[in-house]
Design brief:
Elements (H helix, E strand, L loop, with lengths): L7 H42 L3 E5 L7 E6 L9 E4 L1 H9 L3 E2 L5 H4 L5
Parallel strand pairs: 2-4
Antiparallel strand pairs: 1-2, 1-3
Length: 112
Amino acid sequence: MYDLPPDLDRLRTLWTWHTMWAERIEKEIKKKEEEQRAEELKAQRKAAATPDWVVELGIGQGAPAVDVHIGGCHMAGKRRQTINRDEAIQLISQGVNACTHCRPDTELGLLE
């Protein structure tokens, strides 16, 4: 077991050193807690911002629908538009491709 020094000067030095480190550790803990809260808030916002269904559009003005995707599918391109469930069913029924990665046709109950 570790013994403490017998004299007051060294005891005060140890106390100062430990207090300093405790404060540094406390600041770091608060910083990490704030970072964690910020990440959780960012994830919540992202989840809230993710639509249920999207349609990927072709190039040009009045571009035709190319593929239907589940909202969070990373295969959907940058040219996309949010749609609702009924629109997704209608588009797939009209022959618009269902993404082979996220399988919106299965999710919509069109395939089993």
